[in-house]
C-alpha cells in the first residue's frame, strides 16, 4: 500500500464511515437533515473550487483535507436521510387518531419457538375521525401458534389495529439491545396480533423482482427436499446453498458456533466464487470473439446477482457479489484492479445504500475476515515451510483460518464475549468438505428435475453434509471448545481495532517501526483488563433482574455470586443467555452460579436464606409469601430493606405494611401488568416507596 493513488476508495471510505459513526454515536454533533446536507454541499463546492484554483502539487493536501471533511459530512447526511424519523410520512408523527393501518408483508413469516414472526411495512393509516393518509415505517409483528399467518406471503396487504407499541429497550445490565438492533434495520415498532386482530385484504403488492426470487427459492428448497434431504442435513444444505436458515436447528447452530465454523453456513465469497468459476467454465465457448466475451461477462453478472437475490442479499454475499462484479467489469474494459481497493469500493457502495450496515456485525465480520485473509494469509503461510505436499495444503488452509480469526478477534470478543479455540482444526476439515457441498449442491439444483439423477446427487449432498455435521459435533465436544465470558469494554475494543489496523499496515507496507505502537495498543488493553479484574474483586451487592414470567435475584461478592431463581428460569437456557449472561460477563462473574430455589434454605458466600428472608452483606430482602394473610397490625413489624412481590399475588399492601417495615417495595417482572399496576397504586396510597421492575433491573451496589 505504498502507492496511495492505487486505492482511491480506501481514502474515500475512511472519512465516509467516520461520518456515519459520528452521526450515530456522537449525538452532540448531529445537525438537522437540511443543515447537514447544506454543510456537505458547501464543502463539496469548496473542494471543487480548490481543485481548479490550487493546481500546484504542494497544495494538493488542501484539496484532500476539504474532500475528507466533505465525505465526513456526506456520511452524516446519508445517515440522517436514511433515518425513519426523517421521513415526512413517518407513522409516529401522525398516529394520533389512527384506528388501523394497512401494512404490506415485507418478509416471509418465520416460525420461532413460541410465535410466528414477520416484518410489516406500513403503507396507509385510517382513523374514525381523521382522513386516510399514506405513512411509512416498518414494524415487527408476532402471531401466536398455530395461526393463519403461515398463509401470508411477501407483498400481501393486511389491516392491523393501531397504535403500534414501541420496542422496549434492554431492561437488564449487559443485555442485548434488541431495540437498537431493529432500529438499524429500519424497524421502529412491534405488535402482537391474535387471529382476530388482523384482516387479510386479499391483495398482493409485491416487488416483482423480490417476489420472483422468493418463489424461485421456494422451488429450489422443495427440490432439495424431494432429493432426499431432511432434518439437520436439509437445514444445513439450505443455509449453505441458498442462505435460508429458518430450518436450521438451534443445536446445530450452536455446534457450528462452538466449532468456529459458523461462516460456512453463511452464503459468502466462497459460494459466489464457485458459481463464477463454474459458470465461466460452462460459458467458455463465448471466448472466441470480442462481442461474445461481452455477452459472457453480462451473463456472468446477471447470474451472480440473481444468486445474490435468491440468497437474501446478506452483507457477506453483497460484498462478494460486488467484488466479483468489479473483476468482471475490469475484464470487460481490460483493466486489472486491486483487491483491497475493490473491497473498499464494495463497502463504500453498501454504506451509501444503507449507512446502518456499518453497525451490522455480519457486515463487519465479513469485511474484517476478507481483509485479514488478503493481507495476512501469505505472511502466515510463509512462516512455515512444509515439504510434504498434502501437509502443505493443510497448512495453507490453516493459514487462511488463522488470518481470518486474527482479524475478527476484536469483533467476536466485543459483540459475543467468546472465543472458539479449535477453529483451525474444524476449518482444516470443513473447508474442503464445504467446497464439495457447494459444488454438488449446485449440481443438484440444476438436475433436480431429472429422475434418478437428482436422487443420486442428493445422496452425495446428504453424505457430505452429514460428514460436516459429524465433524462439527466432534470438535464442539472437545474440552474448552469455546471460552465464554470474555468481556471487552468499548475503550478496549477501540484499542484492539487500532492494534489490528497497525498490524495490517505493518505487514502490507513492511514498516517494522509500527510494531512498537501495535504492542503498545495491546499493552493498554492488558492494563485496562487487569484494572477491571482488580476492581471486580471488591464488588458486592444485589441485582433483581427484570424478566417476564420469571424471577431472578443475584447476590454478588467478588467474582462469585448466588442466584435466587425459580426452577423454570434455569430450564429456560435462551432467557438466561439473553438476559443474564451479559451482566455476568461484564462483571466477570461465573456463568455457573450457585442457584438457590425459593423453597430452599441456604447459607454461604455472604448470603443466608431462611424461608422467605434473605440476608446479604448488611442488607435484608423479604419475599412476599402468599401465605402471609395477617390483616391487623402486629406488635412487631419485621424491618427489611426490600420486599419483593412475585407471581400472581393479589394486591394487598395493607398486609405488607402490617407485617413488614420495608424501605422499598419491589414489583417483580413475573407479576402480570394488570396486577402490577394495582400494587403500585395501593403502595402510593400508603406512602410506601415502590419500584416496578418492568422499568428495568434494580441494582444495589454495596462495594467499597
Question: TL;DR of this structure?
Answer:
Helix content is 51%, strand content 16%. It has 704 residues and is an alpha+beta fold.
Please give the largest β-sheet: 8 strands, mixed
Assembly form of the protein: single chain
- What is the share of helical residues? 40-55%
Query: What is the number of helical segments per DSSP (H or I, 4+ residues)?
Result: 21
Mean pLDDT: 84
Distance between the termini: 51 Å
What form results from the Cα inertia axes? globular
Number of distinct beta strands: 22
Radius of gyration: 29 Å
The assigned structural class equals alpha+beta
Number of domains: 5
Task: Give an overview in words.
Helices cover 51% and strands 16% of the residues. It is α+β, with helices and mostly antiparallel strands and 704 residues long. The protein has five domains: 4-82; 91-206, OB fold (Dihydrolipoamide Acetyltransferase, E2P) (Beta Barrel); 211-484, no CATH class; 490-536, no CATH class; 540-701, Metallo-beta-lactamase, Chain A (4-Layer Sandwich). Strands 1, 2, 3, 4, 5, 6, 7 and 8 form an eight-stranded mixed sheet that branches. The chain starts with 7 loop residues before the first helix and ends with a strand.
Secondary structure layout plus pairing:
Blueprint: H1 8-25, H2 33-53, H3 60-82, E1 100-105, E2 110-111, E3 116-126, E4 133-134, E5 138-143, E6 156-161, H4 178-183, E7 187-192, E8 199-204, H5 208-226, H6 231-242, H7 250-258, H8 269-282, H9 290-310, H10 315-332, H11 339-353, H12 361-382, H13 389-416, E9 418-420, H14 423-447, H15 453-477, E10 482-484, H16 490-509, H17 515-536, E11 540-544, E12 552-557, E13 560-565, H18 567-571, H19 573-586, E14 594-596, E15 602-604, E16 607-610, E17 613-616, E18 619-623, E19 638-645, H20 653-659, E20 660-667, H21 673-686, E21 690-692, E22 698-701
Parallel strand pairs: 5-7, 13-14, 18-19, 19-20, 20-21
Antiparallel strand pairs: 1-3, 1-6, 2-3, 3-4, 3-5, 6-8, 9-10, 11-12, 11-22, 12-13, 15-16, 16-17, 17-18
Helix pairs in contact: 1-3, 1-11, 2-3, 5-6, 6-15, 7-15, 8-9, 8-10, 8-14, 9-10, 10-11, 11-12, 12-13, 13-14, 13-16, 14-15, 16-17
